[in-house]
Amino acid sequence: MFTQIQLPYAYDALEPYIDATTMETHHGKHHATYTTNFNAAVEKAGLSDKTVEEILGNLDSVEDAAARTALRNNGGGFYNHNLYFEILSPSPAKAPEGALAAKIDETFGSLDALKELLTQNAVGQFGSGWAWLSVAKDGSLVVGKTGNQDNPLMEGLTPILGIDVWEHAYYLKHKNLRGAYVKDFFEVLDWKKVSELYDKAIG
Ligand code: MN3
């Protein structure tokens, strides 16, 4: 049984960057529905003994096309939002630390350069989807984007930062201005949490 993350902050805690109504609908409705539907799909497919990482990393092994699609869409929605809500904070660390800080400088030159690249991916994703910072098996950092609820686990990578660019994540406040939402996302992104996820990913 997969359970949705319980927010360690109130729905209005990320104001004025992300509004309370968006947070309440996003977590209480969208994410809750993905979680319910993922659990149903997992049970139906007989995969209750697997982790979500195992399921999303091995979708090709699910032979039934409808079952595979249900696991992909709802499993992605479940996993992606757990990550998204986990890395946001009303009192975020504004810069990464430790191994991640060094790796970002080595790979992208600076934190600002990485944020610019993430913003380009977030704004450049056509339609619904996500922009990502992920870790490859050799510990290197990869920036990319995916459509719908797909995620880097499906490409053998470990995501440590995900920017939800579905309209439900920002439209009530930012309307059509996705770039303004991404700018506000960075105001409440907790780099301490992302740094911890990097440490965990490189073991
Ligand atoms: Mn969403």
Walk me through the structure.
The protein is mainly alpha-helical. It has helices at residues 20-45, 52-57, 65-86, 98-108, 111-124, 171-174, 178-187, 191-202; strands at 129-135, 141-147, 158-164. It has a three-stranded antiparallel β-sheet. Helix 1 runs antiparallel to helix 3 and helix 5 (111-124) runs antiparallel to helix 7 (178-187).
In short:
The chain has 203 residues and is mostly helical. The chain has eight helices and three strands, in the order H-H-H-H-H-E-E-E-H-H-H. It is globular and about 45 Å long.
- In total, the number of strands is 3
Bound molecules: manganese (III) ion
Give the structural class.
mainly alpha
Rg over CA atoms, rounded to whole Å, is 16 Å
Describe the largest sheet: 3 strands, antiparallel
* Lateral arrangement of strands in the main beta sheet: 2-1-3
Please estimate the helix content. 40-55%
Number of helices: 8
Share of β-strand residues: 5-15%
Give, in order, the helices and strands: HHHHHEEEHHH
Please report the distance between the alpha carbons of the first and last residues: 26 Å
What global shape is seen?
A: globular
Mean pLDDT: 98
Low-confidence stretches: none
Q: How are the elements arranged and paired?
A:
Blueprint: H1 20-45, H2 52-57, H3 65-86, H4 98-108, H5 111-124, E1 129-135, E2 141-147, E3 158-164, H6 171-174, H7 178-187, H8 191-202
Antiparallel strand pairs: 1-2, 1-3
Helix pairs in contact: 1-3, 4-8, 5-7
The structure holds manganese (III) ion.
Search tags:
globular, 203 residues, binds manganese (III) ion, 3 strands, mainly alpha
